[in-house]
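Risk register update: the risk of archive-format incompatibility is retired. Evidence:
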Amino acid sequence: MTTSGENTTLLPFNTFGIDVKAARIREVRTVQELQQALKSIRPPVLILGGGSNILFTHDWPGTVILNRIRGIEQVRRFKNRVWVRIGAGEVWHQFVEWAVRHQLGGVENLSLIPGLVGAAPVQNIGAYGVELKDIFIRLEAIEMATGKRRVFNRKQCRFGYRESIFKHTAKGKYCITTVTLSLSTDQHQLRTEYGAIQQTLDEMGIGNPGIADISRAVMQIRSSKLPDPARIGNCGSFFKNPEVGIEVLERIREHHPAVPHYPLPDQRVKIPAGWLIEQCGWKGKRVGNTGCYDKQALVLVNYGGATGSEVRQLAHDIIDSVAERFGIRLEPEVNIL
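Archived output:
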């Protein structure tokens, strides 16, 4: 176990680029190191992976544990599928690259999503018609209070749209150590109908795509829309896409007949939050050192020197603006501390 220091800046450990401090930082590379750390430190404790889905608005008064538990292994094989167990400290996109290299399908649509593997089930990450829950088998976690190991299956994780039990009743109570996913070894069911994937494949001249082609198309789309956190601080999509009833859609259609929407079960639809924000005039708007990215209104950015409180205030102003115009209250996807 590596102790990284006391009263240390968290600037390198959050993609929003917010300069706050932690009273203590510790790095763990094995489950045993994690259990040892939990025995020796007092609350409050924050488990931090890639810091790609968190907005700090103040210093952290306790210990930040950096989860660096790594490793990728195939643990069980079936006729057309394989179970792969991944350490929570692995970089998500590097795991996707590994899967594509090994011709394993299921995560190619989730290419270039920032963060570490351990955060994927917390958020039930998703993109371009695919969600983590679609391929999830189980995860292993350490209970923070006792240091005991626990296994969660798909049902126990209570996955929803960008939701899981780890954002609600189990929030802050567990540190995820491994995630096991089921990937296809052949007869891959490719998802090309969502977003601009098919159009991008056509532009690339690919008529019979494989999983590597899907991954490249998704990376091209994401790179064209989303800023590189190394250049402009951000957490990707800041808000969830709201799910509303048909009556809300029809009301919006009276003034915006071409409102984009995606059908859901139970007579509900999903409306892109980015579209709602753009209609309210926020896209490309800068407020001090923060603002809405000019290529994707769903992304709030730190142009340099912004505080977490400034970003939070911008988010609140956007929420109020959308609510006033459309009667829909946006919910942050980002964890605000």
